[in-house]
Write a structure and sequence with these properties.
Layout: H1 25-31, E1 39-45, E2 58-63, E3 71-77, H2 94-100, E4 104-108, H3 120-135, E5 141-151, H4 153-163, H5 165-169, E6 180-184, H6 191-197, H7 203-212, H8 216-221, H9 224-227, E7 236-242, H10 246-260, E8 266-271, H11 276-281, H12 289-301
């Protein structure tokens, strides 16, 4: 990886019941403040899988009208407990925010549990990443400056593709093409630890079991905290945890420590006045503290 280049991923892992989208009148008004409207390309297939509805293997692109100038790309992965969610969710302000800052934004879908389990979600995201690199210049994106952003389960997926070389390698990509990682409120970066802490029954247990099964070896291979090792070529890293979510705080801190041990820049940020959902829903609004924190991070890693 070239010095000073980072790829970003923002995300966090949360409970399925908290994943219903909302938007307030204030948010709607704020979203209209930018005078620059992105050009939209919706439902672009990044891979075809036999018997799979293409809505699960497609992405949305938001870019500038001028496609001659190559701009950094923010690659966003939605959350939803690996079981629900969509690339269009929580796009209230993110596209205009990206355009306002001179970036392009790509939001990706992937196959969901219980139809699939790890590593299939991550394989889809890896395929999408490879597609974006290959086609970036067609929409004015710079293939060498991609920021991967994910929330909730999307945070886990962003982190695991950034440090598990096998996932990207299947599609001809490498981890050193990921310049940095930004994660929003993740709580499942160390799967063996997380699985052992879950109750025998309950929604969270069902969610994790359907996504990761009952094989401890699979849990380890799916754990960014355990896969990030000294000597790895990883990108810069920012993990944000919200409110008083103890699991998110603990898992984020441990992941930052593991990332820092590889010798790269790794940062932790607490958003005390945000919930798991508002952290994501408010991203992109003017005056939002966490938006500014992420914005400064991205600015520091993009040329």
């Amino acid at each position: 990886m070239r010095p000073g280049r980072f790829m970003i991923v923002v995300g966090g892992l949360g409970m399925i019941l908290g994943c219903a989208a909302f938007i307030t009148h204030e948010d709607s008004a704020s979203a209209s403040h930018s005078s620059i409207s992105p050009i939209e390309q919706k439902d672009v297939a990044y891979i075809e899988r036999e018997g799979v509805d293409t809505k699960y293997t497609s992405l949305d692109i938001y870019h500038h009208e001028d496609t001659e100038t190559l701009r950094p790309i923010v690659f966003y992965i939605h959350g939803g407990g690996w079981a629900i969610g969509d690339k269009a969710a929580a796009m209230y302000a993110k596209p205009r925010w990206a355009i306002r800052n001179g970036w392009a934004l790509v939001s990706v879908n992937y196959r969901l549990s219980p139809d699939v389990m790890h590593p299939e979600h991550a394989r889809d995201v890896s395929a999408a990443f490879a597609w974006v690199r290959e086609h970036a210049e067609e929409f004015g994106g710079d293939p060498d400056q991609i920021a991967v952003m994910g929330h909730s389960a999307g945070a886990h997926l962003a982190a695991i593709i950034a440090c598990n070389e096998d996932l990207l390698a299947e599609f001809g990509s490498t981890t050193d093409q990921i310049a940095g990682v930004v994660l929003l409120d993740g709580a499942g970066y160390n799967l063996p630890e997380r699985m052992e802490s879950l109750p025998k029954r309950g929604l969270a247990t069902k969610m994790y079991t359907e996504a990761f099964g009952d094989n401890p070896e699979l849990w380890e291979s799916a754990s960014p905290t355990l896969q990030a090792k000294p000597g790895d070529h990883l990108g810069a890293f920012l993990a944000i945890h919200a409110g008083d979510r103890e699991e998110s705080a603990a898992q984020s801190k441990a992941l930052v420590k593991a990332w820092a041990a590889t010798g790269v820049r790794a940062e932790l940020h607490h958003a005390p006045d945000k919930t798991h959902m508002t952290l994501n829903h408010r991203l992109g609004y003017r005056g939002d503290r966490e938006t500014k924190r992420i914005e400064l991070f991205l600015e520091s890693i993009f040329d």
